[in-house]
Amino acid sequence: MSETFYVPTSEFHSHEISFTAKPGQDALRVLLAKANTKVSLIETSSRSLLAQSRPVEAGKAQLLIATKLKVSIAYTIILEFSAATGSGDG
After folding, report:
1. Can you say whether the dihedral through the CA atoms of 44, 49, 50, 55 is positive or negative?
2. Per-residue confidence at 60, pLDDT binned at 50, 70, 90?
3. What's this model's pTM, rounded to 2 decimal places?
4. Which domain holds residue 16?
């Protein structure tokens, strides 16, 4: 997932959030505003990429939309933050 969304990028930080889909949870939407972040959704067991965020609001936010989640399947949301050189964001 690591793609440079600042040039040059001085550092990356990541955080993972795990969850298991329950009945009625067949979609996921994540919006991160004012964050230098990329968001990905993977199936935990296979580590296969299911969805990745895209820039919205003229690049000021990231939106991830995933559909067709399966009940009882474990998923991991990966948040990857970057800091531009000299920005003091990280």
Report:
1. positive
2. confident
3. 0.76
4. 9-84
